[in-house]
Amino acid sequence: MINLLIITHEAVGEAYRSLTHHFFPTGMPENIRILGVEPDEDQNDIINNAIAALQEFPENHGVLIMTDIFGATPCNAARRLVRAGKSAILTGLNAPMMIKATQYSPMAEDLAAFTETVREAAVKGIFAITAEPEDLVCKQHAEAV
What we know:
The structure is a single chain. The chain has 145 residues and is α/β, with parallel strands linked by helices. It has six helices and four strands. Helix 1 crosses helix 4 (95-104), helix 2 crosses helix 3 (73-79) and helix 4 (95-104) runs antiparallel to helix 5.
């Protein structure tokens, strides 16, 4: 099992908690912790809260820490928690990343491979759609435009 520690700005993590409940209605898996960072929170307090969360995890093959924005406070705190072979970070948290990580973390045993799998899910979940698909346009609304 790979554990997941989500460190985000304020309520962003809570939104991902709700998303996880949507896809996994049995509840938040035991191997996931979410920390929301408040604007006035001290960097050392964030790190201490993260360490406390890490200590609550069940036996594991590592921890994947996911943050929302590279270079922002949650990410900067998380970077101080990285230990080769024991913890890794992915930034740019998005819904495909969260779902893939939640779904596969209980069976994962190789932190580096799991981190790459989750990263690929995040990237593959991003599409640039710049034209309307002809077969899916609602004719009533299309004629009004």
